[in-house]
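Q: My collaborator sent me two sequences in one message, no labels, and asked for predicted structures for both. Can we handle them in order? The first one she listed is below.
A: Yes, handling them in the order given. First sequence, followed by its C-alpha cells:
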Amino acid sequence: MSQKRDFYEVLGLSKEASTDEIRKAYRAAALKNHPDRNPGDKEAEARFKEATEAYQVLSDDQKRARYDRFGHAGVEGMPDMGGQDIFTHFQDIFSELFGGFGGGGFGGQGQRRSRGPARGQDLRVEQRLTLREAMTGTKREVVLRTPVACEECQGSGAKPGTKRKTCGVCEGAGQVSTARGFVMFTQTCPECRGEGTVVKTPCTSCHGQGAVEKSRKVVVNFPAGIDAGQRLRVPGQGMPGALGGPSGDLYVDVDLVQDERFERDGADLVTRAVVSFATATLGGSSEIELPDESKVSVDIPAGTQPGEVITVRGKGMPRVDGRGRGSLQAVVQVQVPKQISARAQELLKELQAELGHEHEDEGAEAKAAATSS
C-alpha cells in the first residue's frame, strides 16, 4: 500500500470508540481475513496485516493518544510490520483474543517459537523549549526513571555463574497447545510467559527480573531551528530489552513556550517595530533585539503607515536542515505620546494646519482637473 489508511477507518470505528469496541472490531476483521481462512488470497492477507497494525496502535492508550494528535507520524518508529514478521510479532495479541488459532498458531504450520532476547520498548517524553533555545540550539538533560538492565546478571535474570533453563512445560517453545475437539488451540506458556526459558536461581539484585528501576539522565541535543511538534530520536535510550536484548529508543517531542515579543511562523519571526510619528512620516530606522540577543536595524521608509509589514530577509529562525534562515517580519506600530509639552502642542497645531492646507490644495487641483475634462 502506497499510503496508509486511517486506523479507525480500517477497523470501521469512530474516534470515540471504546477499548471493548476496538477489540471486537479487530476480532471480526482478523477472523474474516486471516490467511488460514483465505489460503492464497493476498488481498485478505494484506487486510489482516492492516487490521493488526491498527489494533496494535489503538489498543494502547499512549500510542492511541499520539496517533489521535499527530496521525501516522505520531507512531512512526515502531517496529516494522511489513512482510510475514507481522504474524509472529502479534501472536501474543491474537492468542489473547482467540486463545490461539487452529493449526498450531499463525499460518497453520504448527511451528514452535521461543521469544528469546527481545528489543526493549521505545519511550516518549515531551520537552518545552524557549524561543531562544530553539533559535540557538541547546543541550538538555532529560531525567528518566525506568527499568535498566541489571549489571549483576547482564539482564539475564539468572544469578551470576548460572544460566536460564529451558522451560519444562513448553520445552522451550514459549507456547502450549490444547486440543478442543478437532481443533488445536495455542496460547502463551503460563510457566515461562512465552520466554521459552525460566530462571532456577534468580539474581539477588533484580530478583530474576533482569532489570532494576533507576533514575538516569540522558543528554539530548536540540538543533538550532527546531520547532514545536517535531520529534527527536535518541537511539538505545528506551526500555531495556528482555533477556539481554537491545534497548529501545527514546523519542523526545518538542514544544515551545509562548514568547512575549515574537510569534513564530515556520522559519519566520513576527514582531512589532514601535516607531514615533516623526519616524513613520520622515523615515528612519528601528532596532529590534532578537531572541538570541543579537540586534537588527529595520529601515523605516518615509510615509510608512501603521500596520505595514517590513520584511528583513535572513534574520528569522535558522532552518533545521542548515539551509539558511527565515525572515524577520516587523509590523510597524506608531507610538502616540500621552503627554507633550506646550511647545510640542504648538508645533503639532502648526503641522495640522499645514497638512490641512495641503489637503485643500490637493482637493482644489482635483476639482479643477475634473471640470476641465
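Q: And the one she listed second?
A: Here it is, processed independently of the first:
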Amino acid sequence: MTESQPVTARPPSGPVLGASSDDGLLRFRGVRYGTAERFQLPRPAEPRSDAVLPGPICPQLGSRLEAAMGPPRDEPPQSEDCLNLAVVTPALTGARPVLVWLHGGGFLSGGGTMPWYDGGRLAADGDVVVVSVNYRLGALGYLVHDGVSEGNLGLADQALALEWVRDNIAAFGGDPGNVTVFGQSAGALSTLALLSEPDSRSLIRRAIVQSSPDPAIIQDRRKAREIGRYFVDAVGGDPVTASVDQLLAAQQRTLRWNAAKDPTSTRPPFGIVDLEVQLSDPLPDLMIGYTTQECEAFAIGVHDDGIRQAIAVQTEPLFARPARDLAQQYGAYSYEFDWTPDHGGYGAIHCLELPFLLGTPESWRGSPMLGDTSWADVERLGTQMRLWWTEFARSGKPGPQSGFRIGNSPQRLENTP
C-alpha cells in the first residue's frame, strides 16, 4: 500500500496530519490521545500534529502466540509514550458508525497500530470509521504494588481513548453517538470491564466480544499484590526509576515463576484486578463469540503430552461456556467460529478469526494458523464477516438471527439454537 496526498483532520484537540492511501481511505496512524507518568493514571494530551507514521506500542516481550500467528511484520517502535491510536476513515465528512478496536495479547503484548490490526478492509466494506487503540501492557499497565501502582492503568488508558473518540471523532467522519467497542481475548475482557464501569459505559452504544476468557480469571487484589511483590523483587531496585530493559527482564522472570506454579494455566500474571463484570440497564447491543478450538493455540510447542492436553481441553470451560452464558444472560447475539484451513494450520484456534476482519494480505502473509489458505479464500469469508460486524455496528443486528456458526460450509453461516 502506498501513500498519496497528505490530508489534515481538524478535531477539537488540534489538527492532525494523515495521508490518503491507494485504497481510497484516509489513515491517521499515530494520533496521541493521552500521556502518563510511569505507574500513574493517564491524562489527556495535545496530539502530535503528524500522524502519518504508526504510533509506538507499549514496551513488551514477544507474543506467546507467535507460533500460531507468525512474527509481526513492520512492527511499530516501542515506547512508554504509547498512548496513541490509529484512525482509518472513508472521508472526513459524514457521521458513520465508529468501531473502536481493543487488541488482545494477554495484557502482555500487541498494539493497535500494528499492521495486523489495520482497519482498512472494515472501513471500506462497511463505510465505517475504525479506531485502533494502543494501551499500557504488562507491569507498566497492570502492576499492583503498594506505593507504586494500584493497577488497571491499561484499562484507564482505554477509557481515556473512548473519551477522545467522543470528543474528536466527528472530525474524522464518525458519529460519536454510535460507538461500537470490539475486542478480542484480553481486549474482549477489557470490553466487558469497560461496560461494567459507569463512566466508560456511557461512551459505548454497542459491543462485540471476541474470545473473551472467563471473567472469573480477573485477579483479586490479594493475588495481584503477591505477583507484584515478586516482580518488584525481581527488578532489584525502584521500579519507578528502573530502565525499561530492567522492567522487561523482571517481567520475564515473573512470567516463568508464575508458569512454574501451574504449567497448565493460561492466565497471565498481569491483568485487570478487583472488578466484577456486571452489565446494567440500559444494556448495550451485544455480540459475543468464540472459536471452537481456542486453547489449542496455547498448547503449540508444549512438549509434555499431559500438559499439552490439559491446556487444549480448557476451551470449553475457559471460553465457550462463559461466552454462551454471557450471551444468554444479556440477550446477546452469539457466534461460534469453526472455520479451519483445508491444509495446515492448527484448527479453529484462538486469534484465527482476526485475518478475516483486520489487517492486510502482507501483514498476515505466511501466518501458520492459516495453513496454505490463499488470500482469495480468506477474503471470501472475510467479506461476509466484515459486513456482519459493520451491520451490527450500524443497527445492532448482524443479519443472522439468534446464534450463528461461521465455518467452511458453502453458505458460510448456519443458525444455531
